[in-house]
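agent> fetching stored inputs for the uridine-5'-diphosphate docking request
agent> found them:
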Amino acid sequence: MKLFGIEIDERPREEILKDIIQRISSSQRTFVVTANALIMLKAKEDKEYRNALKSANLVVPDGTGIVIAARFKGKKIGKYPGVELAKDLINEGVNRDWKFYLLGAREEVVSRLAKVLNAKGLNICGYHHGYFEGNGPIEEIVSKKPDVVLVAMGIPKQELWIHKNIDKFDKGLFMGVGGTFDVLSGFKKRAPNWMIEAGLEWLYRISQDPRRWKNIFRLMKFFFYAMFDRS
Ligand code: UDP
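agent> prediction call returned; pasting tokens
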């Protein structure tokens, strides 16, 4: 399915995960975007960001907004939230001894997450906070030859960083994961299950961080554009 000219993966999550595992196992360099309504709206409005998303190998429907937009086009698709995909990759990574690099979030968050994941048996080959100028620790990351690079710097930074730097690597799975490090490290809570199931995780995030209230207008704008999208 295309939305704002960008191909969104319609497959069930098990198939998407299988594909990603296969790509990592066969050392295929891969860029995965977990797209929610705000990411898609940014892509609609900003050409540089749109080009970054168009260069991705897989654009996975992360949120309820995308699922509803698909309905407008007569398609019934499921969602695969980025935080769940990241958890699935971590579990696979423990079993398959993949090397993970964690890039993003505050120093105390990413260092705690590295410790937590290490204790679970995950091979963390390095980590770095997400507050840097330019390309940051790119040479260090390239030299580590990671199998998976999780980039948690928010929208649009994370996808722009991946788009700009992915060609420097011979292999690896690159994925922007937004606020996932804050959740997995235990610094922030995810919404309660009933809210996730009701498609209200966005409302929970706004209630936790009132600076996000403007996102309600962004969401309305997204639905307006999605309703009339003919791509
Ligand atoms: N972040 C970062 N560098 C920045 C801005 C944000 O590493 O320059 C981190 C921030 O600490 C958080 C993550 O990016 O862990 C996601 O931020 P936010 O929740 O604001 O982004 P969203 O997921 O809403 O895009």
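agent> quick read of the result: The first strand starts at residue 2 and ends at 3.
agent> awaiting further instructions
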